[in-house]
Amino acid sequence: MSVETRTEPSATAARPADLIRLEQVTKRFGADTVLDHLDFAVRPGRHVTLIGPSGSGKTTILRLLMTLTKPDEGTITVDGEPLFPAPEKQVREVRKKIGMVFQHFNLFPNMSVLRNLTEAPVQVLGLSKDEAEERARELLELVGLADKCGARPAQLSGGQQQRVAIARALAMRPRVLLLDEVTSALDPELVAGVLDLLRDIARSTDITMLCVTHEMGFARDISDQVLMFDGGRVIESGSPEKIFSDPEQDRTREFLGAVL
Ligand code: ADP
């Protein structure tokens, strides 16, 4: 199995090929322990989906990896390099390996679509404007929006905006793509197109994906491994076939019964 959850931190230490590794990660908000000594690791190129009830800590994991919030305890490494704890300069370098697509797109509203894609590659990666634009145009072609280079985000549908957000994340050539409920803010008729695009990306690239979704059909299609969260812990993990067809935990069965 390509991705595993583990209870013993020493077990992860023997797996240097992991692209993402969380060891004994605890995150509290006030008196609430949102993640409780969590261990898990993701091998390169794998597609891992986090499922579980609302409030079980899934988004917090993605936010920790994006360094939008910090753990209270534990360690996080990406591609063998520490993300936490680590000096700020190193965090900035490691962060370049990670792209994220948010539920609400989070595009820069006063920039054109093209500039949304070129801004970070120029500012953060140091690409020339020409190089960044060439790559941006290729990506807009990939997501089916080659004709929208000059548009502002507000002139696009939600589905188109999310495609731009996906292209913008890919423009940084990340090793890991984090997807946080990327279709939940979309009108129902726009969901399928965005999921199809992500399926294509999953099939045609070697990018590692970590995905929080309530779209169980999508999770079943693209995942190598599904992790079921409850109360800040992984209570069950396995192949999508196993988790969706023959889960071991009553809690998983109950959750799937409610969402499927
Ligand atoms: P999920 O993605 O599984 O729905 P989250 O990771 O978003 O869960 O949230 C886990 C818990 O942490 C929830 O109880 C949520 O209210 C709490 N939480 C998340 N972010 C914050 C924050 N910035 N301040 C306080 N509590 C938070």
From TrEMBL:
UniProt keyword list: Amino-acid transport, ATP-binding, Cell membrane, Membrane, Nucleotide-binding, Transport
Topological relation to the membrane, as annotated: Peripheral membrane protein
Domain ABC transporter: 20-256
S-adenosyl-L-methionine among keywords: no
Principal location listed in the UniProt entry: membrane
Domain of life: Bacteria
Cell compartments where the protein resides: Cell membrane
Pfam family of the protein (one): ABC_tran
Family membership: Belongs to the ABC transporter superfamily.
Name by which UniProt lists this protein: Ectoine/hydroxyectoine ABC transporter ATP-binding protein EhuA
Organism: Streptomyces griseofuscus
Encoding gene per record: ehuA
